[in-house]
User: Fold these one by one.
Assistant:
Number 1:
Amino acid sequence: MKMKSGVEQAICILAMLATQVNQDPIKSFVLSERLKVSDSFLKKIVRRLVVAGLVESSASKEGGFSLAKSPSEITMLDIFEAIEGKQSAIQPLHLAEHVFFANDSVITKENEVLNIFYEAERLFKDKLNQFSLTDVLTSHDYEKKMFDWKNIMSELGQ
């Protein structure tokens, strides 16, 4: 299974928003600069997070992006589905039925194989659903730290 790079970027964006001092909104150019991606690409990722209800957008001089939910309410499954979509990754073409002439035996075996893939996908999503953004932050001890991402570059001497 291949996962889009946007999933990793979305996790980082959400972690930045979660650790922003006073939960102040962060402008897209600040996020894109820190992640070293183009602002237009970052906006596409953040747009998906907004549509999924994970991020809020406010357009004003002091606006930007902020979390729409607490980190404990955002699972890795939420993030994965915001970027990858909710549809199944398994899209069978039923080739065995065409190659081996559809009969009960071929259809039964094809269904067995498909069921293995569906079960693996279910287990994958169940596991993602058990891990929240808070788990990411606590595993790195960030729940105790807050950053002013707007000014972080000057704080780091960059």
Note: Residues 5-87+132-155 form a domain with the Arc Repressor Mutant, subunit A fold (CATH 1.10.10.10).
Number 2:
Amino acid sequence: MAPLYFPLGLGIMLVVFGVIQILRSDIKKSIESLKMIKDMGEGDKKVNGMIGYTCVAGIVYALIFEHAGFVISTYFFMTAMLTLTNKKKHGQNALVAVLFSVGIYLIFTRALGIPLPKMPFVGF
């Protein structure tokens, strides 16, 4: 239970501080900035789309991490992020994602002795 207390306490404190920041903020300026979103240029819309895509990919990564294991979930996350920035080179993106996820897995588990979630049905 000991490793539970620090992240839980940190999460609660961050939520409380976030609520305090919202209450202290100028609501009128917040509403004005939300209205400005409608008048965004094409470049701003593209950047906001990329940010949203990254957030969704991060959430999916967190949800499948324990079930699919480190290598598989990291491969899909890296492929998604590389495809976002390097759209036309799918083979290169896949190769980099495989090398990164397997390489980091081996470094952490073999060299550093830090256990990471294993792939299902595979003993490596």
Note: Residues 40-124 form one domain.
Number 3:
Amino acid sequence: MNKQTLSVFFQVAVIAAILLVFNFLVYYMPDLKGKTADFVYPLPVMYGFFFLMTAAVLAVLMKINRKNQEQTGYAFLFLTTAKIALSYVIVRPILNKAGENPTEKVNFFVIFILFLAIEAYYTARLLNNK
């Protein structure tokens, strides 16, 4: 791995850590205190899952971009679709019990969208880097 690749992974790790700390702080608010007690997946597990998925997607995109830059956008679409399918498998237990605590469902989709935005940002940087 070159220095630029490691820099991207480090940046994503820092962003994920900041988002995790912020998410913990949100659940310390009086209205939301104790809502995480009955979550199917603890917050660090969710962030770890999405961080690993994002790191894997970015690693594959960087490799594809080095070999064939024209295919990077298509690879992003395919990998994002695969990530959505895997995320659906993960979210099914949350959806089944969402009536009891909809906070976890909202939290899952917010985390999903945040990491998707991170992937889209770095993919756009790859595509614009000529």
Note: Residues 3-128 form one domain.
Number 4:
Amino acid sequence: MNPPPIQWLAVFAAAAKYSSFRKAADTLHVSPPAVSQQIKALEEYLGSKLFRRNGPRLTLTSAGEFYYQVAANIMSLHHSGFTEFDQRFNKRSLRLSTPLFIAQELLIPHYMAYKELQSKAELRITTGSEYIDFDTGQADAAIRFGHGGWPNLVSRLLCKVHISPVVSPLYQAKCMRQPQSDLASLVNNHILITTDENLQDWYSLFPDIHPKDVIVCDSYFSAIKSAEKGLGIVLGLFPAINNWVNEGRLTQLSNGYFDTQSAYWLVSPKQQEDNPLIASCFTWAKTLFDGLPALHNE
């Protein structure tokens, strides 16, 4: 008996990864019925059920778990092999995934500076709030915010980050008139803006804080814009938002900073470590971060 058509494996691997035909369809840019039909065809070919259907949620059978490891290994080898082939023989484009805030504030306004480093290369910038999965082949490199040291990735430091709560002058004037003895008391019982619905970013700095209300945004860019509009207090990432403070769009509640050991990093798969386009991207991005202005009050 011959193995099943290899195109079925990509569909099966995506459905198993996301436990959803709909999410697999979105990833593969096909319709959910098309995914369902190919999974059914694969199950009939193998003579075994691969999924248990529990409403919209899928779980793998024991046969499905075994075959998922086969499919996942094949797809990972295919993606990494194609990426290496493309970089070595054809590639003159770099796909960079980055947070929306960094793309809008830093990268896109200075796009042509990358072209000066790689005049014949195309830089494709995509944005998102979740970490890109390099195994899917959707990006060659990414700018991430965090502590670094991600497994199987090369992490190049772009900029260390310090944190301090910021508000718009409008919110400060309307809602924060009473002086407080310390920063924790100052931000307590106010509207907090965050990208984390569990408020772990706030609780890590102020464990005993009790917010008046919480606004959860889908990106840091949205959170900063919400603060600028006077909706509440947000944790400012310095020096990334130095311009916003210098221009008076936001104001610091304290001259002090929290050092959380977080930073912006350029990350890429280890097999891409010697890619000259990624090296040029790091040089370009590092120059942009290094060129962020100092705060006027420092």
Note: The chain has three domains: 6-86, 92-159+262-290, 162-252.
